[in-house]
Design a protein that fits this description.
single chain, alpha+beta, Uridine Diphospho-n-acetylenolpyruvylglucosamine Reductase, domain 3, Vanillyl-alcohol Oxidase, Chain A, domain 3, binds flavin-adenine dinucleotide
Length: 501
């Protein structure tokens, strides 16, 4: 399948002789079966296989699949030896669909696939944490927590996606941004040294989970970062709610601004919890929408009585304000309702169950998770918006303009991250073929430009827009500071520049 062509970025420094030596040593550490090398030059850009966004396949020196954190430390040590040793691009399960899947941002990197590190090393249900490795999936962790008083904060991506990989990219779950779940990280620094930053359990240690420690905290340095390779994390496990109910509202697209301001008040006053979501008509289709109306899912959790009471306050408010064409809070419990299954799955996801069979995910993508990269066409654009009706209407207008101009079908889901902040998820689905991909990539470029001009900047980047961090940074001196840290910690570029270099 030919792919969408992009400008080739500067490749990391390598010398073929040194790369060969490093990979031979890597094979001695990991075993030959855990090292995938290209057969010839043409094979370098085929090694990772296709990606769902049809980003240009980068040339890759090799794929390494360690099985233990100790092996990761040895590998990072090898790549740190000289400026010619090559650079590593780390993935956990590599399902970063819409932003690049497993692709590095630049040519010439060696992909370090940590999917084989898949142990839950430790678990404390009383204190509410788990120590997990990069290959632990949200499906796996939620299965382990079944019937316990704790849950995991799940995303609406597939059950087979990594909890840690998503958190390190500042992904968003239904209970909040996953980065907030990180309490401690085990990091392999360039050179191969292992450090544990943030909070970490130790035998006999009774200190409660508190990620900040004393003095400057190093934990945030390793999120969206090329300063180290993360081999494990302490993640928070929220208490399991005794009851969850989702109120579903439908409304006319023309009322989007007014609804946004109304829902903002409800979020600010605690009438809905977790990450409530507002869907434009295209996004609402996946949840039973008719293609014309917008929809909102407003979750409430707590004891059965508090859920009952809050839901009643919420639905009263919704009826009274006169903005909604539909107000419903019983679909999840009413087996006769046509939306019973969908709403039930949404309620369970808010309660920490990631839909192990991927029913909603497969409905959206049209293919099972293992075929997304080879058979579906998909791109994400992820700007942040202020939680205000006029800002949301402006963003919606820009989206329609780009859709009209490019002929690409765009959908938007607003994740309400708090009373002041919205994560606006713009998704593009297209046929997995070159012409449709080119149109979608044109739309993506237009979205980056139009939203930046309106002051709506993205919080996650795709592999083709890796340079945007410099352009969008409020203070270039702050970017320069992280570059100084990079030069200090990783003088030989053992870790590839990545999307946030
Ligand atoms: C239909 C659909 C729904 C989706 N829903 C959501 C959603 O609700 N929320 C959401 O956030 N995303 C969503 N996604 C996007 C994506 O699938 C998820 O974010 C997914 O969890 C990312 O893939 P992964 O977990 O395999 O992480 P990876 O691809 O393994 O990692 C993500 C990135 O983090 C970095 N990284 C990973 N591991 C390490 C490490 N050990 N050390 C250092 N850096 C590392 C790398 O830069 C990597 O590219 C959705 C996608 C689709 C198609």
């Amino acid at each position: 399948m030919p792919e969408h062509a992009t400008t080739v970025d500067r490749a990391p420094a390598t010398s073929p002789g040194e790369t060969r030596t490093v990979l031979e040593e890597a094979a001695r550490i990991l075993g030959e079966d855990r090292v995938l090398r290209p057969r010839d030059e043409a094979d370098e850009s085929r090694l990772l296989g296709p990606n769902t966004s049809l980003f240009r396949s980068r040339r890759v020196a090799a794929v390494l699949r360690p099985a233990t954190a100790e092996q990761v430390a040895e590998i990072v040590g090898l790549f740190s030896r000289t400026p010619d040793s090559g650079s590593l691009h780390t993935v956990s399960t590599g399902r970063n669909w819409g932003l690049g899947s497993r692709e590095p941002a630049q040519d010439g990197a060696t992909v370090l696939d940590l999917g084989g590190l898949d142990r839950v090393r430790d678990l404390d249900l009383d204190a509410g944490w788990a120590v997990i490795e990069p290959g632990v999936t949200q499906g796996g962790l939620s299965r382990l927590l079944e019937g316990t008083p704790r849950i995991t904060n799940v995303t609406v991506s597939a059950a087979s996606t990594s909890v840690l990989g998503n958190a390190l990219d500042r992904g968003v779950g239904l209970r909040g941004q996953r980065t907030e779940d990180l309490a401690g990280l085990e990091v392999i620094l360039p050179g191969g040294e292992r450090v544990r930053v943030g909070w970490w359990p130790a035998p006999g240690r009774t200190a409660p989970l508190y990620p900040h420690g004393l003095g400057p905290s190093a934990l945030p340095l390793f999120v969206q970062s090329n300063l180290g390779v993360v081999t494990a994390a302490v993640v928070r496990l929220p208490p399991r709610p005794e009851a969850v109910r989702v109120t579903r509202l439908t409304f006319h697209h023309a009322d989007l601004a007014a609804v946004t301001d109304t829902v903002r008040r409800w979020v600010a006053q605690g009438l809905t919890r977790g990450v409530p979501r507002i869907y434009d008509p295209a996004a609402a289709r996946s949840y039973g929408g008719d293609g014309n109306a917008c929809m909102a899912h407003l979750p409430v959790d707590g004891t059965p009585a508090s859920v009952e009471a809050l839901t009643s306050v919420l639905t009263d408010e919704a009826h009274r304000c006169g903005l909604f064409t539909g107000v419903s809070s019983t679909e999840g419990t009413d087996p006769g309702h046509p939306l019973h299954e969908i709403t039930g799955l949404v309620e369970r996801a808010y309660a920490g169950d990631p839909d192990l069979a991927d029913r909603l995910f497969e409905d959206k993508m049209g293919v099972p998770a293992h075929e997304v990269d080879s058979a579906a066409g998909f791109l994400f654009f992820l700007p942040l918006l202020p939680f205000a009706g006029d800002a949301v209407a402006r963003a919606d207008g820009l989206l329609r303009e780009v859709a009209e101009e490019t002929g690409v079908r765009l959908s938007a889901t607003l994740h309400l991250l708090g009373p002041d902040l919205i994560d606006c998820v713009v998704a593009m689905k297209f046929a997995h073929e070159t012409e449709a991909a080119e149109r979608a990539h044109r739309a993506l470029d237009r979205l980056y430009a139009a939203y930046a001009a309106a002051g709506f900047t993205p919080y996650r980047l795709d592999v083709d827009h890796a340079g945007e961090r410099d352009a969008l940074a409020p203070d270039p001196a702050a970017v320069a500071l992280t570059r100084r840290l990079k030069a200090l910690l990783d003088p030989n570029d053992a870790i590839a520049p990545g999307r946030y270099r």
